[in-house]
Recover the amino acids of this structure.
């Protein structure tokens, strides 16, 4: 039986100047602009037929604060599809409280890189299906990586590796993404969430070489994220990189494309989706 590809809208949530939770979009993790209310967006995407929904508190890790669990709970009340929540999760207690607030899965980035044992602890306590390891990847064109892929740069073919970053892409770690993805899978991660800092918000398409490199290295499901400009980009990342899910934000937030429209486009081209 062929598994269907999942279409996953994502909201990046921060605290506005009045202290209220709000959704923002940007480019390359910067220049964030207000996009809407998280609870209203959860209701919208649940009704639109999204397969899953992702809620990311985008400054919790950088600011060293906890995820906004009251907002997570309000979102969960409107969301009857699998809900993944990330941002500021560093301990098994954080995982427990996030799941208790209504999340079905937690997305962990900085906390797992700083202490990889958290992956195993979380998987043992709550099940691998709850543990999503998020990777914010940046292309590097030096000799510091473990795994190299061919990419286009300035109109020419060259090779690069992908570096894991933390704190919303603000800090590099020197760690190779493919090596880290393999370790995360071995430690018990049930899913990998692969973001491209280079493609984020550009609408120029997913980083297919990045996604493909991770998909080739692991058997764990991989969510492709960053750069989606439309249904054709999802078709490409599914067909060429074999991603299990395609995540998008602004193209859905600003009604450039609807969930149903994307699914019909993919279905017509032989990509298995849930209609």
């Amino acid at each position: 039986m062929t598994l269907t590809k999942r279409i996953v809208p994502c909201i990046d949530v921060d605290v506005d100047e009045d202290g209220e939770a709000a959704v923002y979009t940007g480019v390359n993790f910067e220049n964030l602009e207000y996009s809407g209310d998280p609870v209203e967006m959860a209701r919208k995407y649940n009704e639109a037929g999204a397969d899953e929904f992702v809620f990311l508190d985008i400054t919790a890790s950088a600011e060293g604060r906890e995820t906004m669990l009251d907002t997570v709970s309000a979102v969960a009340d409107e969301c009857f599809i699998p809900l993944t929540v990330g941002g500021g999760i560093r301990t098994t207690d954080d995982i427990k409280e996030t799941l208790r607030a209504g999340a079905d899965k937690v997305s962990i980035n900085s906390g797992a890189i700083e202490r990889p044992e958290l992956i195993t602890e979380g998987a043992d306590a709550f099940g691998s299906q709850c543990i999503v390891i998020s990777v914010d990847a940046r292309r590097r064109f030096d000799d510091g990586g473990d795994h190299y892929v061919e990419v286009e740069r300035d109109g020419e073919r060259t090779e690069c590796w992908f570096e894991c970053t933390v704190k919303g892409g603000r800090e590099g770690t020197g760690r190779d993404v493919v090596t880290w993805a393999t370790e995360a899978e071995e430690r018990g991660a049930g899913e990998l969430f692969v973001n491209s800092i280079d493609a984020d918000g550009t609408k120029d398409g997913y980083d297919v070489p990045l996604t493909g490199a991770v998909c080739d290295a692991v058997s764990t499901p991989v969510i492709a994220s960053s750069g989606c400009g439309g249904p054709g980009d999802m078709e490409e990342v599914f067909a060429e990189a074999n991603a299990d899910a395609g995540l998008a934000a602004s193209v859905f937030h600003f009604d450039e494309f609807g969930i149903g429209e994307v699914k019909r486009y993919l279905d017509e081209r032989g990509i298995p989706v849930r209609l």
Notes: The first strand starts at residue 6 and ends at 15.
